[in-house]
Amino acid sequence: MAESKASESTAQYDLTNTLAKYLDLHLMFPLLEFVDGNEFLKYSPEDIQKARLALVQPTNMVEYAIEIYQELNNTKDVPADMATLRDSVYRQIETYESEDSALRTFFTDLDAGKYANTFSEQQPLNLAWLSENVGVKQEDVEEYYKCAKFEYECGQYETTTQMLTNFLQIEEYKVITSELGFKALWGKFAALILLPNEGYPNKWDMAMTELDKLKNAIDTRGDNDKQQLQQRTW
Questions:
Q1: Whole-number Å distance between alpha carbons of 84 and 74
Q2: pLDDT on residue 6
Q3: Tens digit of each residue's pLDDT (9 = 90 or more) over 61-117
Q4: Long-range contacts formed by 9-16: CB under 8 A, 24+ apart
Q5: Residues 6 or more apart from 89 whose CB is under 8 A from it?
Q6: What's the half-sphere exposure (Cβ side, CA atoms, 13 Å) at 108?
């Protein structure tokens, strides 16, 4: 990003570009909000918007990408590639919404207290119980995870947080034993950080709780030293 001459000496110490190489794309949005209009850095608003567009294009936040593109180019036209992606995203949303998901219904009932006192150390919530009592199979559970990831790519962080919280209750996807569960914990951690401040005053406390779980998982999963170092760095 370009900066004015007056702020050049200050902006050279800005680590945003350095951090960008190591962060999930979505986690860059709060950083751009911070540098946008920063009185010390004074980046060009146009450069900030170009950076946002570059970050948002690989995601499913297609309406946001179109909005930025139109603002930058002072047009109401929609590029063909963005229009194609938008149609694809909407079709996938319609597919997920039209599916009769027994697992979604189960978690709604679970939150409502329908299964109070059902689960314990002797009877955990696991795939066998879901199969026998709800008719949900392993592939249904893993499709639920994919849907949560899709919601994250669409910028629906509240929905993602709830879905991954649900997913991580299933015994087979506890983070120490499951690679998919480990990914889900990382996803939940990121989604919590990205929750809006308004309405979630305790989001940082919740994120720190998940960070402690991640630290424990990294230490106990048995990954080699290089993998552990990479995970701790992230």
A1: 21
A2: 41
A3: 999 999 999 999 999 999 999 999 999 999 999 998 887 689 999 999 999 999 988
A4: 10/40, 10/41, 11/41, 11/42, 11/43, 14/41
A5: 60, 62, 154
A6: 6
One-letter identity of residue 187: G
CA 190 → CA 7, 11, 23, 112, 142, distances in Å? 32, 27, 10, 26, 19
CB half-sphere exposure, 122, CA atoms < 13 A: 2
What is the distance between the alpha carbons of residues 147 and 73, in angstroms, rounded to a whole number? 33
Cβ neighbors of 150 (< 8 A, separation 6 or more) are 60, 92, 96
Q: Is residue 86 within a helix (H) or strand (E), and if so which, with residue range?
A: helix 80-98
**Please, what's the b/e burial string for 138-161 (b: 16 or more CB within 10 A of its CB; e: otherwise)?**
eebbebbbebbebbbbbbbbebbb
Q: What pLDDT, in 10s, does the model give residues 203-215?
A: 999 999 999 998 8
pLDDT greater than 90 at residue 5 = no
Question: Residue 45 and residue 56: Cα distance in Å, rounded?
Answer: 16
Q: How far apart are CA 127 and CA 232, in angstroms?
A: 31
Name the DSSP class of 25: G
**Taking a C-beta distance cutoff of 8 angstroms, is the pair 125, 169 a contact?**
yes
Beta partners for residue 43, in sequence order: 3
Residue 199 and residue 234 in contact, taking contact as beta carbons nearer than 8 Å: no
CB 125 within 8 A of CB 119: yes
Q: How many Å apart are CA 130 and CA 167, to the nearest integer?
A: 12
